[in-house]
Structures are given as C-alpha cells and as structure tokens.
Amino acid sequence: MECATDPTRTPPEGRAAARPIFLVGMMGVGKTTIGRQLAAALGREFIDLDQAIEARCGVRIATIFDIEGEAGFRRRETAALDEYTRRPGLVLATGGGAVLSEANRRMLSERGCVVYLRAGVDELYRRVARDRGRPMLRAEDPRQRIVDLLALREPLYESVADVTLDTGDQPIIQVLRNLLALLPDRAAAQAPLTE
Ligand SMILES: Nc1ncnc2c1ncn2[C@@H]1O[C@H](COP(=O)(O)OP(=O)(O)OP(=O)(O)O)[C@@H](O)[C@H]1O
Ligand SMILES: O=C(O)C1=C[C@@H](O)[C@@H](O)[C@H](O)C1
Ligand SMILES: [Mg+2]
C-alpha cells in the first residue's frame, strides 16, 4: 500500500484518514525507538506490538517463549497484529519476526504504509548485545544467529516494504529526519525537530 492518506476513507470530522504506518525490521534496528518518536512528530498514536502483547499477557515475551514456545508467541503476535493493523492513523512498531507468516505479511502490506528499517549485522549486534530479553538470540553465538535470521528475513521485509530506510550508524535524530522526509504526510508533523 502507498503511504499517502486514503481519500476513500473519510472519518466523521471530514479529514482523510491517515494511513497507519507499520515499522518492520530486525531486532535492535530501532523500531520501538524510532516508532515512538515518529508518532510524536506526526501527532499520531503509537503502539509497540511486543509491549502490547506483554501487557495483555502480564509477562515478558521471554516468559511467553518459555511457557508456550515460539509457536505460542507467534499465535499471539498474529492476533495482536490483526487487531492493531486495523486502527487508522496508528504508528505501529512490530516485532522482528512479524513478517514470518504470510498472513501477517498480507495484513501489513494491505492495511498500511510499511517502513522497513535496515541495519548491518555489526550494528544490530552492537545494539542488542547487552540486552538479555530477546529469546530469539539465546544462542551460543548470538552474532551468527543475527546473520542467519537476517538472511532468512531480509527478503520478507523487502517484500512488504513501501519505504526502506538504512539506519546505518546514524544517530536516532538523523534516522527520524530521513524517515520524515520520505513520508508524504511530513506536513502533518506537529512537533518541530530540535537537535
Ligand atoms: N540509530 C540508532 N543509533 C544508535 N542506537 C540505536 C539506534 N536505533 C536504536 N538504537 C538503540 O538500539 C537499541 C534497540 O532499539 P529498539 O529497542 O528500538 O529496537 P527494536 O527494533 O524495537 O528491537 P525489537 O525487535 O527487539 O523490539 C536501543 O537501546 C536503542 O536506543
Ligand atoms: O525477531 C524476533 O523473532 C523477535 C523479535 C522481538 O521483537 C519479539 O517480537 C520477539 O522476541 C521475537
Ligand atoms: Mg521493539
């Protein structure tokens, strides 16, 4: 789906509904961090899918993996994605594996503007190395795990992306600036960006 507002969906107040924006990409690429600030800059509601699932279950994602396995987590993820991708105007940060199922990919690409945030293996590893809360990185060699996951997932992220943005080694403010410049409703931003 393209990223402009949808003129066929007119909310009661008469303004065209803002297309929801979905952030996808690998663990640690910055979906939660950038998503929250993007939503603030655009004056939109922000939801982090991982945090929504945790709030609903009352436990951390690592605990869901421990008790229900990855398959149990993925079922919860699909149910939450189905709910939140229907909300107009949202900025939604998805989990790193949200693109794995075809049903999820269809929801993402049909219901909103999908932004793929990219980063290289070393950058991703640097960002997640100190964080023990990511069950997919419980491996003898977490860096190699990132290599393997990226190889599998990169084509899937690309297949749903309307906009792809390299976060490289750029500071968060620069990533945000670049993203806002790529989105057509930049003019709707309510908060000026300050250094
Ligand atoms: N451009 C950046 N430069 C430096 N650090 C960054 C950048 N983007 C994010 N980070 C840092 O990387 C860490 C991971 O970011 P974040 O939690 O937003 O990633 P995520 O994509 O939501 O990961 P997950 O899929 O596991 O939820 C955080 O500590 C964040 O501050
Ligand atoms: O990359 C993944 O498969 C995951 C990423 C996180 O956002 C969480 O959704 C969970 O830890 C699984
Ligand atoms: Mg996150």
From TrEMBL:
Q: Where is the signal peptide?
A: none
Organism of provenance: Castellaniella denitrificans
State where it is primarily located.
Answer: cytoplasm
Task of the protein: Catalyzes the specific phosphorylation of the 3-hydroxyl group of shikimic acid using ATP as a cosubstrate.
Q: Which keywords appear in this protein's UniProt record, sorted alphabetically?
A: Amino-acid biosynthesis, Aromatic amino acid biosynthesis, ATP-binding, Cytoplasm, Kinase, Magnesium, Metal-binding, Nucleotide-binding, Transferase
> Can you say what this protein is called?
Shikimate kinase
**Pathway where it operates:** Metabolic intermediate biosynthesis; chorismate biosynthesis; chorismate from D-erythrose 4-phosphate and phosphoenolpyruvate: step 5/7
Report quaternary structure and partners. Monomer.
Places the protein is found: Cytoplasm
